[in-house]
Amino acid sequence: MGLGAAMALALGDPPADYASIAAVGLFVALMCVCIVVGHLLEENRWMNESITALFIGLGTGAVILFASSGKHSRVLVFSEDLFFIYLLPPIIFNAGFQVKKKQFFRNFITITLFGAVGTLISFTVISLGALGLISRLNIGALELGDYLALGAIFSSTDSVCTLQVLSQDETPFLYSLVFGEGVVNDATSVVLFNAIQNFDPGNISSAKLLNFIGSFLYLFGSSTILGVASGLLSAYTIKKLYFGRHSTDREVSIMMLMAYLSYMLAELLDLSGILTVFFCGIVMSHYTWHNVTESSRVTTKHAFATLSFISETFLFLYVGMDALDIEKWKIVGQTYSPVKSIALSSTILALVLVSRAAFVFPLSFVSNLTKKTPNGKISFRQQVIVWWAGLMRGAVSIALAYNKFTRSGHTQQPSNAIMITSTISVVLFSTIVFGLLTKPLIRLLIPSRHLSREPSALSEPSSPKSFFEQLAANSPGHPDLENGISLRRPASLRFLLVSPARSVHHYWRKFDDSFMRPVFGGRGFVPFVPGSPTESSLPLLPGNEN
What we know:
One of its GO terms (biological process) is potassium ion transport. The protein is mostly helical. The chain has 22 helices and no strands.
């Protein structure tokens, strides 16, 4: 041992894992590059930050591949744990935290119809298509369970990329439909995939089908209840203990940790962490966020958005670099001709296009039959955008493919390797091509004069005065800011049938004001830091005594 090493150990410094340090350092540097390039391309009508990160990841992978003389192209092996446990939760939570709740719940039946029934239709079309078409390509010994797994893998949309290509402020209706569908879709796809893992082709019965339907309903309901309960627990804890009187850091920390805890509890209980943390975010934005101090509201709003942004950037860099993993491509190149690889990827892509059309247009027609007013119906142009924006496949598809066709990220079986490379090819093509064309398609089908600009439900106040004015305006009896209309009491059964969304919202507000807010806080509960300028300069708003 050298003198330097001995001195380092004597001083208590552990031996450094330089490979890990180099990998993390490279990703941090690349994320900085992505932020700078994304800023420069902010006004570009084609590019968005996810595609920028994907291109930079591909470019970096190519450089590493060249520098290592074709030995490897990545510094990290794709890990399902890294994706599902660390990267996905902050992205989905922030989406729930920032979502326009009224728009989301007004379209909740349609979202559930697309996300659950639509996913089952997509799964059926892709599985049958794979069984009929891919089996003819003679790529290897694939079993019925493998074709069904392909249906589950490619029926999963990329809800993360949806956040980038659709604007919640400009197209709130389309955003709530496509992203809401994506959240339910991810949960449904994972349930399908897990059911297929335990699938026994020799034991198919109606009882098995009913068991699957029951399992899905249990998972959906239990995950939602757990997310709502976690959000309400955080709201009650912060309202009663009021951490802000001593330290705003504590209330910010408890919000973050309880949100993450809800996801981990769902995973431990074999529920959908995606659904749980999404609904936890919705409840926290409705109650918990209003129970913390003014400075904590600004902090949490930006902290959650920043964590989500960093996770998204890291994720697309990760996928881009992993796409050029030479191990799988070498196996495929030595076993199959380029024509067969292209044919497989093209077949899967065609099945994705057809399977999405197979449920978007019919289910939109069914949804429109239940709408009494033209404003609530999905126009044909909007249906085309919903169909197109949901064609992108992302990291969930890659993670499920790795789970099915590899062990610890590696495989030596050619049929499994070509499935991984085809999945990567479809993900890259759909994300880049469909993602690049989504914004121009929206501008083509929905002219800019029809795009609305709505303030976010958690938009940052320009001053403490405007902040409390906004709270006062949101108190019971005031016009609703998100719709710009006053809520009227339903005068008859006919009104309830003609305007069910508005009527349900009226009764929910009544229940919320009478029972929920007195216990869990929310709008109208405005905490004050003792001795702060806001305490002495602003009057107490109605409802603060709760």
